[in-house]
Amino acid sequence: MTATEPRSSARQEESELVEMAWDPITRIIGNLGIYTKIDFKNRQVAECHSTSSLFRGYSVFMKGKDPRDAGFITTRICGICGDNHTTCSHYAQQMAYGIKPPPLAEAIVNLGEAAEYMFDHTIFQDNMVFVDFCEAMVKETNPSVLRRAENAEAPNAEIHGFRTIADIMRAFNPFEGSFYKEALWVSRVTREMFCIMEGRHVHPSTMYPGGVGTMPEPTTFTDYQSRLIGILDFVKKSVAVNDDVFDFFYEALPGYEEVGRRRVLLGCWGAWNNSDVCDYRYETMNDWGKSMFVTPGIIVDGRLVTNNLVDINLGMRILLGSSFYEDWVNEEPFVTHDPLGNPVDMRHPWNQTTVPVPQKRDFDSNYSWVMSPRWFDGQDHLALDTGGGPIARLWSTALSGRVDTPYVKGTGSGVRIALPKSDQLPEMTLEWKIPHDKEGRPLSNALERDRARAYFVAYSAAIAFYFLEHGLERVRAGDTKVFTDFEVPDEAVGCGFHEAVRGLLSHHMVIKDKKIANYHPYPPTPWNASPRDSYGTPGPYEDAVQNTPIFEENGPKNFKGVDIMRTVRSFDPCLPCGVHMYLGGGQELKKLHSPTFGGING
Amino acid sequence: MGQIRVGKPDVKVDTSTHVPGIHEGNKGPYHKQPGHNKDGTADARRSTGIYPKRHNPILKIMPNIPPG
Which end of chain A is more exposed for a tag (fewer CB within 10 A), N or C? Predict the structure, then answer.
């Protein structure tokens, strides 16, 4: 984190609002900047803007390309969840080509994606998020909390082996702590598991539309299985450690529920297709969407609005308002009706045309390269967030109650996860419960987003056993078919719905003359980091940071902004963003125009 | 591209489209993949070209699981 000196100003004493900015934010990928005004008298954030100085333009240069290349190009969108893009692109292509991969190929893709969730959540949670909760950080920001942690017994000590909460915090210390180092080892093993299934991490080399090129040998599955069992101890300990630390924060800092709290507006597009049901046809998308092993869903104020993928698809709207683009409503639409005959809006990704207009950042008008994706429920354009992924996935699966396997079960009020016996720890059944505050209202805040991440690693590990059993059953029966032949049609439309590690992911494709006429990937961060839209609705980061209380004990002079960082990082931000920080008296001294390609960050 | 001034492209935007004469992987040429059967099964010829039949299972009811 780079911090610039506080700007000297004669009016600083009188001003209640102090401007602070973190641009770029560290420990995440990309060019995310968070610009805030902090009211130190009332100890809360008064205003927040989230901005990105990076233009990618995938939707611009995908036009005219061979649709079969889409998965290999779009995987480069991200350096950590690229395979989610490959998978999603192949889902969209399989719909456009009218094909269904063989069940064994689906099992291999599902196993690869499960390994990716385990890898990415572990490295982000334990090596990045926990730095905000480690002994070194808490000593600087909240020394009284650390003193209390020294004497606080850890309730799950018999599982993870740390006697006090302060012991856990010491284990989180970067580069030195035992938990930090163990997490690095686990992220290596889970990446090996990924490579067994998808060939290479993070841009898969053995995944194609129509199937996979992975040789389905018995050892492919047993190699994966032995590694999976090897990390189970860590997965079980990790859940216990997360519960202990986050419960301690609620106890030590009453009111911490409000940090990063936002109205529950969660979206999940579902993950892991069920090969028994899924045929990739748009007409049956509602049925196969509901049979996914993470049920898609939109949750508003704790209630499930829909889990029908067709409704989810048709409700998507891409709004402008504060983004550096020209509107496309006067362009020719690509898709006026979906394959079921429903009208498709001009602001839907199928009809979007990206027209970039580079300009200066101005917080009163346009200030970000991110557009504002919203979901239209018939009345309002909802600014859905993904909560970093896991909380939305668990919540949606819990409320739908459709996932019912021996390992994972949605119960209506939570998700039950059964993990088999491992090296040191016995068989365990974990339960993630829908979080509520003390008044019983549904709760989506920084700590609950982080907690859900640990549970989702357990979820992925458990469901991977289910995929392994199904894959091995087919191999033992002599089935080795992993690919379906296809022809590229002259004209077609396709959409893919998947979960990137940090939340919902969709790819929308239109093919004309066997080439891509329009292609729009919508990963989670445009939803989370979106700026104010044309209706003035702030994006989720802005909304979550605005009015968040400040618990840090430091004053403006040596302010770290740890509560704000915990809020932003709880969303698992991933704009290809970073942090310099300045304090000021509320007036701009100089306006700098950030270069389009984030040149100052190298 | 809106109002942005751009240079003349060096290559056509669809350069990566299929080049005639190069084999397309999505066609599934079984004659080039010995040991792979059309019904989705495989036999020992997939793993080895040396006396492959000797490596097949000894009974018909047994599944053929070549080692890769």
Answer: C
